[in-house]
Design goal:
With 204 residues, the chain is mainly beta. It is built from three helices and ten strands. The chain has a single domain (5-26, 58-200), classed as Sandwich (Immunoglobulin-like), CATH 2.60.40. The strands form two sheets. An eight-stranded antiparallel beta sheet has the order 2-3-4-7-6-5-8-10, with no helix packed on it. Residues 4-51 have low confidence and may be disordered. Residues 1-22 form the signal peptide.
């Protein structure tokens, strides 16, 4: 029989009727203002061309990592990664020294509880600094490029797709963190503690 869980008071308003809140799964804003129009005034000579390094090329990497939540019965497989994803609608991020990172998720939510897999994914640099959170602002760019955006998985469901991370400061390597929030079971039962899984992502 499926049980319903209740989040602690601090998180209940953000996750009513769910085991987990979608912490980290909500769209973040682009953070940066669009790059200025590179026009020069009539009285100012155009600046000479610089010898800056070319923009990084989009690279797709294979990943074979699994997060297994034995308490909730959820399974999350990370099966692919894209570095320096080219999003025509948001070129200000790479122009400012950042990048768009995509991760392919194959998620199967357990059916013991009602929450499912709603999010909770965050990207960190290997030194522990926050690199970026998931966002949906480039979903159209992803779809146009053949990367189907990931959808949340309700209890008993399986979904597969790509999540995007806005990284404002590009790093050589990243770590994916997945957080399961603490929750209580409605009707009795042991409370579910918070847990964080950490996955080192490939660099090549």
């Amino acid at each position: 029989m499926r049980q319903t869980v209740r989040l602690s008071l601090a998180t209940a308003t953000a996750a009513a009727m769910l085991v987990l809140s979608a912490c980290g799964g909500s769209d973040s804003s682009d953070g940066d203002a669009p790059a200025a129009d590179p026009e020069t005034s009539a009285t100012t000579p155009a600046a000479p061309e610089t010898t800056d390094a070319p923009a990084a090329e989009q690279t797709k990497l294979a990943v074979d990592q699994t997060i297994q939540d034995d308490v909730l019965g959820d399974t999350i497989k990370i099966t692919g990664m894209v570095r320096d994803f080219q999003a025509p609608s948001r070129t200000n991020i790479p122009e400012g020294g950042g990048e768009w990172v995509l991760l392919e998720l194959d998620t199967k939510a357990g059916d013991k509880f009602s929450g499912g897999v709603q999010g909770g994914f965050t990207l960190y640099q290997t030194d522990g600094e926050l690199a970026g959170s998931t966002t949906g602002i480039i979903d159209d760019d992803m779809t146009a490029a053949g990367f189907t955006p990931w959808e949340t998985a309700s209890a008993g469901e399986q979904t597969k797709g790509w999540v995007a991370f806005q990284v404002n400061t590009r790093a050589d390597a990243y770590q994916l963190q997945y957080k399961r929030l603490a929750a209580s079971v409605i009707g009795g039962g042991d409370p579910i503690p918070e847990k964080i899984w950490k996955i080192e992502l490939p660099t090549s």
